[in-house]
Structures are given as structure tokens and as C-alpha cells.
Write a structure and sequence with these properties.
The protein is an alpha+beta fold and 282 residues long. The chain has helices at 3-8, 11-35, 52-68, 98-103, 178-191, 204-212, 226-238, 265-273; strands spanning 39-42, 49-51, 73-76, 81-82, 89-96, 109-117, 126-135, 140-145, 150-152, 155-156, 169-171, 197-199, 218-221, 242-244, 257-260. The protein folds into 2 domains: 3-157, 2-Layer Sandwich (Fructose-1,6-Bisphosphatase, Chain A, domain 1), CATH 3.30.540.10; 165-273, D-Maltodextrin-Binding Protein, domain 2. Bound molecules: L-MYO-inositol-1-phosphate.
């Protein structure tokens, strides 16, 4: 492989593609928002919506990736599913935080992650090696590549370093079905008395980036899809966070994803799961 070819395949180069495509799709998503949101479908429940912008964002990103990286796979929230031969699969959330997009609340993002197969890293069997998460409403672009650190608009970011649970500002989120919400309420009931406070912004990708930037001290959620966390998880890891799943044999992912400073994340997981022996308030 020549030097130029190697550079074209480097994690840093993949991050550059993710940044460019996330910002381009974000600009289109913002333009469509200004014209008015068109809800086109729903998925797991009537409130799990798909807008025309979700579909247009994913279409734009997939079209560009197919042109630039024809041997790569593509996997998107709104249906893109293309097997590749290069070992790289792009995981796309065209708008993470779609409800916020519908209500014009400034916490939604385009998330693009270049991933490789790795059953030990995450529950979906893939690990991001490069990613970008772009919030078009705030103009923030978070990016990372494996071993290259994490950045916000090009400036290096690090987690807060908070190791004390009682002083921690903790992000979380809730699903779209009653059954899932009831499970999540139990988790919040255990956690809220033990921490500074909860923040629920409505986008896992953005939550993980806020953790990476030190604006949250920790984050947990049960029920996330790979496209929700793939991009933000790498950015949080490269900013110094440790991510845990439900137990030692279950990597972070849909069953549970906990993210925080390595000195805090195990205590957080134990409290989330009720495994710390504390009694839940009546
Ligand atoms: C969202 C997640 C968020 C979760 C929301 C929703 P979507 O993804 O990023 O963490 O709490 O309920 O699932 O559906 O907006 O792409």
C-alpha cells in the first residue's frame, strides 16, 4: 500500500470524511427545519418519528460514502444497509434527537462513525475507529479517531475528571415504549438521590459528546441502538472516559451503556443496576 493510499485509509482521514459529511448533512437538516418539519413515519411507537430530514440526511451521507469509499459497508438508522469488503462499516444516525428536531430544541446531531468488527468492544459487535458528531443548531462538531484524542471544533477536549458520584451531573435518556420507560424510571429512582442532578437532553450522541467535553460527569442509558452511540462513544473514550455494559461479560450497548471517569463508572453502574446494596427510597 503506498503512503498516499495508507493515509487515505488512516483513522485520521476517516475522521476527516466523517466531519465533512456530518457538517454537510447538518446544514441541509437545518435548512429543512427552517422550511418546516414533515413527519413521514413512525417506528417502535407513534412517538418514535421519522422526518423527511432524517431520510434526506441519511441519503446524502450514504450517496457521498458510496462515491468516496465504494468498498466500505454502510448501516443507517433509516434503513441503509450495504455490506462492504474493506473491513470498514459506516454507522449513521442522520438526526439523533429527532424529537428535539421536531420541537426545534437545540440538542440534535448528525452522527457518523467508521467502525470495524469487534465483538468484545460493544454489544453490537462493532467498534468505531473514527467518528464525528455535529450539532447544526449550535455549530459544534465533535470528532475523534482511535489514538488521536477527541476535539470540539478542532480544539482538544477531556472529560471532567469527576470521581465523586454525589457531586456528579449525570445524563440519561428514555425510550419510546411504556415498558422501556418503566424500566428506565426504576434506574433514575435509584440514581437521582445519589448524584448532583440528572440532565436529559434527548440525544445519546450529543450526551456522550457533552461528557467528552466535561459538561456532563457521567451518562447512562438502557435501550440505545448502535447508531445512537457509535460516534459519541469513541469521542467519549478518546476524551478519557471508560464505558461499561451491564456486567463483565456484556460490553456496553443496548442492554446498558454507562460512561464516566474510570474512577466513577463502576460505582455508577452498580447504583443504576441496584447492585450497590443501597435501599431504594420508598
Ligand atoms: C434518541 C436517543 C436518546 C434517547 C431518545 C431517542 P433518536 O434517538 O439518542 O438517547 O433517549 O429517546 O432514542 O430516536 O432521536 O434518534
Amino acid at each position: 500500500m503506498t503512503t498516499s493510499t495508507a493515509a487515505a485509509h488512516s483513522p485520521e482521514a476517516l475522521a476527516g470524511i466523517a466531519i465533512r459529511l456530518a457538517e454537510r448533512a447538518g446544514s441541509r437538516v437545518l435548512d429543512l427545519r427552517r422550511r418546516g418539519v414533515e413527519v413521514q413515519a413512525s417506528k417502535s411507537s407513534a412517538i418514535d418519528i421519522v422526518t423527511a430530514a432524517d431520510r434526506e440526511s441519511e441519503r446524502m451521507i450514504v450517496e457521498a460514502l458510496r462515491a468516496e469509499r465504494p468498498d466500505d459497508g454502510v448501516f443507517g438508522e433509516e434503513g441503509a444497509g450495504i455490506a462492504g469488503t474493506s473491513g470498514i462499516t459506516w454507522v449513521i444516525d442522520p438526526i439523533d434527537g429527532t424529537a428535539n428536531y421536531l420541537y426545534d430544541l437545540p440538542a440534535y446531531a448528525v452522527s457518523i462513525a467508521a467502525t470495524v468488527a469487534d465483538d468484545a468492544a460493544f454489544a453490537d459487535g462493532r467498534r468505531a475507529v473514527a467518528s464525528a458528531v455535529h450539532n447544526p443548531r449550535t455549530g459544534e462538531t465533535f470528532d475523534a479517531w482511535e489514538g488521536g484524542g477527541a476535539r470540539l471544533n478542532g480544539r482538544t477536549i477531556r472529560i471532567s475528571g469527576q470521581a465523586e458520584l454525589a457531586a456528579s451531573l449525570v445524563g440519561t435518556g428514555f425510550g419510546y415504549t411504556v415498558e422501556r420507560k418503566l424500566e428506565q424510571i426504576e434506574m433514575v429512582t435509584r440514581v437521582l438521590p445519589r448524584i448532583r442532578d440528572i440532565r436529559r437532553f434527548g440525544s445519546a450522541a450529543y450526551d456522550l459528546c457533552l461528557l467528552a467535553a466535561g459538561r456532563l460527569d457521567a451518562y447512562f442509558e438502557r435501550g440505545l441502538q448502535p447508531w445512537d452511540y457509535a460516534g459519541g462513544a469513541l469521542i467519549a473514550l478518546e476524551a478519557g472516559a471508560e464505558l461499561l455494559g451491564r456486567d463483565a461479560s456484556t460490553p456496553p450497548g443496548e442492554p446498558l451503556l454507562c460512561a464516566a471517569d474510570p474512577a466513577l463508572v463502576r460505582e455508577l453502574r452498580d447504583v443504576v443496576l441496584g447492585a450497590d446494596g443501597a435501599s431504594t427510597p420508598a
